[in-house]
């Protein structure tokens, strides 16, 4: 997932927390310095609620994000979270 400032377009993943939820499954990832990408749920198909939160920004949420699989691997889903400053 690419995380950017909605106003400037600058990368904003550093310090952002992405959570993925599907039923009892929960995963959380925190962005590191100078990074615009957050990655989660490797090799796990499902229908997720994806949330990105960062101090100073409104929380970004997408529901019903569907990740499918073929015979060998999951099919990657690319999202772009445009965080709106508070």
Which strand-content bin applies to the residues? 35-45%
Q: Quickly name the level 1 CATH class.
A: Mainly Beta
Kindly state the percentage of residues in helix.
under 10%
Helix segment count?
0
The second-level CATH architecture is: Sandwich
**Poorly predicted regions:** none
CATH topology: Immunoglobulin-like
Class per helix and strand makeup: mainly beta
Largest sheet: 4 strands, antiparallel
- Head-to-tail CA distance between termini: 21 Å
Spatial ordering of strands, largest sheet: 3-2-4-5
Average the pLDDT over all residues and give the rounded result: 91
Return the domain count.
1
Which H/E pattern describes the elements?
Answer: EEEEEE
Q: Supply Rg.
A: 13 Å
Total E-strand runs: 6
CATH superfamily caption: Carboxypeptidase-like, regulatory domain
Quick one: overall form? elongated
Please give the structural blueprint.
Blueprint: E1 2-5, E2 17-22, E3 25-30, E4 46-53, E5 60-67, E6 80-83
Parallel strand pairs: 1-6
Antiparallel strand pairs: 2-3, 2-4, 4-5
